[in-house]
């Protein structure tokens, strides 16, 4: 009886490894292709967009879920940083400010809504709506959506900042400089 359980578990284990290999999950690689230092391997994997995710769907490597890595998001927040935020939802792609009025005219206030339609830095990536509220002395207020120049100016400011952030990010990315296969590193020094 004990022999049968061991035999069955061995067969199941071997079958599992066979199917694992058949699915293409296991890919043998040469040790020459990867540097022995863990820091360099990590740097190379990041540069090539490789990674391992425990959770998450069909995202490809190199896609970050951090708001600080999205230039449009950062530029939008920097542009409207003088206004109080009512809601900022990165995963939903929307920023909503609270009503804001400056000290010179307290009877007039604005509210801005920014929707992100794509992460690419281009003119149709953002949908910006500006709402204006005018109140009289009796606190009777009328609200309407502002059209025109101010929308274009805010969008232009956001896109300029985002382009600068992207250029800065590209300038700070360092390319992986691993060993060459002639027995020398890329800096001309010996590996061995």
Protein traits:
192 residues; alpha+beta; Alpha-D-Glucose-1,6-Bisphosphate, Chain A, domain 4; 2 domains; five-stranded antiparallel β-sheet; 5 strands; elongated
- Report the sheet-strand fraction: 15-25%
CATH architecture of the largest domain: 2-Layer Sandwich
Low-confidence stretches: 53-62
What is the overall pLDDT average? 77
CATH class of the largest domain: Alpha Beta
How many beta-strand runs?
5
Helix content: 25-40%
Main sheet properties: 5 strands, antiparallel
Ends distance: 55 Å
The third-level CATH topology of the largest domain is: Alpha-D-Glucose-1,6-Bisphosphate, Chain A, domain 4
H/E series: HHHEEEEEH
Radius of gyration: 28 Å
Q: Taking strands numbered 1, 2, ... along the chain, how are they ordered across the largest sheet?
A: 1-2-3-4-5
| Class by alpha and beta content | alpha+beta
How many distinct domains? 2
Number of helices: 4
The dominant shape is elongated
In short:
With 192 residues, the protein is of the alpha+beta class. 34% of the residues lie in helices and 18% in strands.
Could you explain how this protein is built, in words?
This protein has 192 residues and is α+β, with helices and mostly antiparallel strands. It is 34% helix and 18% strand. It has 4 helices and 5 strands, in the order αααβββββα. Strands 1-2-3-4-5 form a 5-stranded antiparallel sheet, covered by helices on one side. α3 packs across α4 (149-172). The N and C termini lie far apart (55 Å). 8% of the residues are buried.
């Amino acid at each position: 009886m004990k022999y049968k359980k061991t035999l069955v578990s061995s067969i199941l284990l071997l079958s599992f490894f066979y199917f694992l290999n058949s699915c293409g999950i296991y890919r043998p690689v040469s040790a020459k292709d990867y540097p022995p230092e863990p820091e360099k391997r990590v740097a190379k994997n990041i540069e090539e967009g490789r990674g391992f995710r425990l959770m998450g769907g069909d995202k490809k490597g190199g896609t970050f879920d951090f708001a600080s890595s999205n230039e449009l998001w950062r530029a939008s927040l920097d542009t409207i940083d003088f206004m109080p935020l009512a809601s900022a939802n990165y995963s939903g792609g929307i920023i909503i400010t609270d009503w804001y009025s400056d000290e010179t005219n307290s009877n007039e206030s604005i509210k801005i809504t920014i929707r992100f339609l794509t992460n690419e830095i281009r003119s149709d990536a953002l949908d910006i709506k500006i709402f204006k509220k005018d109140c009289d002395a009796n606190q009777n207020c009328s609200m309407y959506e502002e059209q025109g120049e101010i929308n274009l100016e805010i969008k232009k400011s956001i896109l300029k900042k985002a382009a600068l952030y992207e250029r800065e990010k590209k300038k700070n990315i360092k390319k992986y400089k691993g060993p060459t296969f002639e027995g020398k590193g890329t800096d001309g020094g010996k590996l061995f």
